[in-house]
From TrEMBL:
Name of the protein this chain belongs to: Exopolygalacturonase
Domain of life: Eukaryota
Subcellular location: Secreted, Cell wall
Family the entry assigns: Belongs to the glycosyl hydrolase 28 family.
An example Gene Ontology biological process: cell wall organization
Native source species: Zea mays (Maize)
Protein EC: 3.2.1.67
Gene Ontology MF, one: lyase activity
Annotated signal sequence range: 1-22
Length: 410
């Protein structure tokens, strides 16, 4: 009988502990939420530690689950501190509008085993009206893993995690934050509509492979303004299916400049159209404004209604470049077999200096020449002394007005 009593007493105490623990966890969740309309979820009140050593993935995911599950305007607060996290998945749709306010530093774990295959670091899926803002950093800690990137040697290489990926996100905003040293791309948008990227800084060390700044594909209504990008690959790139894009007031400190493409690598790619780039400065970039398509492109697609205006080059290489013979690592299977059409492209008021004699290179396909290319007030001069400013134009048709005579292709 005494034994039975002891067992019953133990079971009672265990049940009481479970109830109290559950109440404590719920209290912690409620504690993290501020009063007032909508709410605020501070990750430190959900157990996160800003010492840069403890894995805070669970706390951040709990904050997302709570914020996304509540109606009204919700805020997830990343306060000052260094918060180490693994792979984060912010999945919608949400009941209300969520803002992620980053004052501190989110650090991406260097343990690649914590990322699923083809996984990204911060992945946001099917969330409308999302805002990511603040003065903090999204630090990919890329230097620890860049040596594992084999993409310079293999056509189908293993992709390292991208830092911030937004898929099927509409009416979103990213502002104020700094993205730095991503393991692969810093920011990617796929199937996004009506997005605003403003006052953002994107930076990676000079020897970082494939650290593209901002890439988008199958997206429309994208605005990028007042942003600074300094990386080791494309600063801003437009993949297939990109339309209605406006880029203004962006400074590019290094990298491969502004690229449409690369295009045609895969089957069934969609057209790029209505892309406008204005009032930008490129400093010592490897390319300036560029359109590139694979020489052995697998897709039939068109690039049209592209407008570059008021672009200043400061010792950038290859300032104006259309490349229909793009073939990285010399792995293309056919020569001059591109199926990509380029038409109605305007270069207007492009000024400054080039670190290469070739200030203009229009390398179009003999099979499908570039047409409707307008060169208006192009005044870019070679900054060296061992050669002269020149243009190389093949299989391109268009008009020239107010350009340096050396750069008059037509």
């Amino acid at each position: 009988m005494a034994c039975t009593d002891n067992v019953m007493r133990a079971l009672f105490l265990l049940a009481l502990f479970c109830v109290m623990h559950g109440e404590k966890e719920e209290s912690k969740r409620i504690d993290a939420k501020a009063s007032g309309p909508g709410g605020s979820f501070d990750i430190t009140k959900l157990g996160a530690s800003g010492n840069g050593k403890i894995d805070n993935t669970k706390a951040v995911q709990e904050a997302w689950a709570s914020a996304c599950g509540d109606t009204g305007k919700q805020t997830i607060l990343i306060p000052k501190g260094d918060f180490l996290v693994g792979q984060l998945n912010f999945t919608g749709p949400c009941k209300g509008d969520v803002t992620i306010h980053v004052d501190g530093n989110l650090l991406s774990t260097m343990d690649l085993s914590q990322y699923k295959e083809h996984g990204n670091w911060i992945e946001i899926l099917r969330v409308d009206n999302l805002v990511i803002t603040g003065k903090g950093n999204l630090d990919g800690l890329g230097p620890a893993v860049w040596s594992k990137n084999s993409c310079a040697k293999k056509y189908d290489c293993k992709i390292l995690p991208n830092s911030l990926v937004m898929d099927f996100v509409n009416n979103g905003e990213v502002s104020g934050v700094t993205l730095l040293n991503s393991k692969f791309f810093h920011m990617k948008m796929y199937q996004c509509k009506d997005m605003l990227i403003k006052d953002v800084t994107v930076t990676a060390l000079g020897d970082s492979p494939n650290t593209d700044g901002i890439h988008m594909g199958d997206s429309s209504g994208i605005t990028i303004t007042n942003t600074v990008i300094s990386v080791s690959d494309d600063c801003i790139s437009f993949g297939p299916g990109t339309s209605k894009v406006n880029i203004t007031g962006v400074t590019y400190g290094s990298g491969h400049g502004i690229s449409i493409g690369s295009l045609g690598r895969y089957k069934d790619e969609k057209d790029d159209t209505n892309i406008n780039v204005k009032d930008c400065t490129l400093k010592k970039t490897t390319f300036g404004v560029r359109i590139k398509a694979y020489e052995d492109a697998a897709s039939v697609l068109t690039v049209s209604k592209i407008h570059y205006e008021n672009i200043k080059m400061e010792d950038s290489a290859n300032p104006i470049f259309i490349d229909m013979k793009y073939c990285p690592n010399k792995l293309c299977t056919a020569n001059d077999a591109s199926k990509v059409t380029v038409k109605d492209v305007t270069f207007k008021n492009i000024t400054g200096t080039s670190s290469t004699p070739e200030a203009v290179s229009l390398l179009c396909s003999a099979k499908i020449p570039c047409t409707g290319v307008t060169m208006d007030d192009i005044n870019v001069e070679y900054s060296g002394t061992n050669n002269k400013t020149m243009a190389i134009c093949t299989n391109a048709k268009g008009s020239t007005k107010g350009c340096l005579k050396e750069l008059a292709c037509f």
